[in-house]
Every structure is written in C-alpha cells, then in structure tokens.
Amino acid sequence: MVVKKQRKGRKIKMSKHVKRLASPVTWKQPRKKFAWSVRSRAGPHALKESVPLMVVIRDVLKFADTSKEARNIITRGKVEVDGRIVKDYQRPVGFMDVLTVKESGVAKRVLMDKRGMLVLADLNPQDANWKLVKVTGKSITKGGKIQISTHDGRVILSEEKGVKRGDTLKISIPEQKVLEVYPMAKETSVYVTGGAHRGTITTIKEINVSRSYQENTVESNDNFTTTMSNVFVLGKSKGEIAIPGGA
User: Which one has a higher pLDDT value, 170 or 244?
Assistant: First the structure.
C-alpha cells in the first residue's frame, strides 16, 4: 500500500515505494520484472508528470543494474539536475529538466514523446547551462519586484514586467537568470503537453480569450484547438529545442 496507517494522533507516513503496474505512464521501466519501484518524493514536479531520479539512472540511462547501485551513484554526488548536485534518489525529474553526469560526460534534457512518456534527449555542452520554464503565476513583492512562479516549482525574481502567465522563459541554470522571454502569442512555436494532441509540435494560429470562467483556448495551424494550459511555448517562430517524436 502507498499509505501506511498509524494510530490516531500520529503522522501518516508515505511509503517509499509504489507498485510498478500502478506507476505513472511517464515512467519508462519494465513493469512486470519486479513488483515494486521507488516512489517520487514531493518536489518540483507532480507524481504523474515526473519520474524518480533512481529510475532514470537505473532503467533509462542503464548506469546500474540494481536499485542499490543506482542509489550509490546518486548519493555520491555524481548526478546534477538543473546544474545542482542531487543526492536524493527519490527526487522527481520532469519535463524540461537538465540532467548531467559529468564523470561520464552525459548531458540530457528531459522531454516528452507522443505517448506521454518522459524521454532523455542528448545535449551539447553549451546547451546544458539553460532550460525553458513555463510561467504559471506572477505577483509583485513589497519591494516592487516581479515574482514569477514556473511549472517546475521555481520562484524567480525578475524585472521583466511584461511577462504573463503562459509565457515561457529561457533561464540560466543554476543561477536562474532570465535570458529570453517567449510570449504566448500568434505565430509562436509550441508543444502540446496534454489532451488528445499531446506530443504535437505546432504553431499558434489564434488565441481565444474566454469571457466566462472557462479556460482560454489556442487554435493551431494544424486545425485543432486545445486549452492554453496544454500548450508549452518552445520559442518564437522557431522552437529552441526539438521534441523526439513530435510532428
């Protein structure tokens, strides 16, 4: 079971494991080889939109044959996510994260294919020091600075006043300095991250602003419409990155 019941008044402890057959479809691992797999710890990405770092090292990169070997690689500080050493083998790794194993010369960007599975794309060394993040919220601090929340759990202080929810930022990692702003606008290259057209790379034809409580929608040049929350801006007229399996 995922949740371990305890006596009244005591905290409920979450299990470190999850049944492989019940694990999210984003996890690229053999589902019938073993009964259990490690569970992602609460972090920058939701459980259904991420994969534990140990699964990446063992089952995707195949740097280890067992969970013990994978934990050893991680706890020795051999792996970096977004430019920072990560020693937590349960740390969730999600869309657009940058993973590096410098000892092996490996640099990867976490992307998503048409089936919704997280995949690792090879990176040139010069591209491993930045990532794309989607703006999910915006507020102003007491000092008048702009505070931006992103899809990967970041909070960025910036002077970019024109940034809106739904825009994409190109940031340096780990410093998270804003390098470019890609607005959610007509003629921009986008990737569809959810819905019936998940995995499709397309261009925005029109943005329909809802006058009710319904979400705004985006019309694509490929003759389909989806909600704005399902769209991730990849760049202006040309995307900054290529998505494996995208159409």
Answer: 170
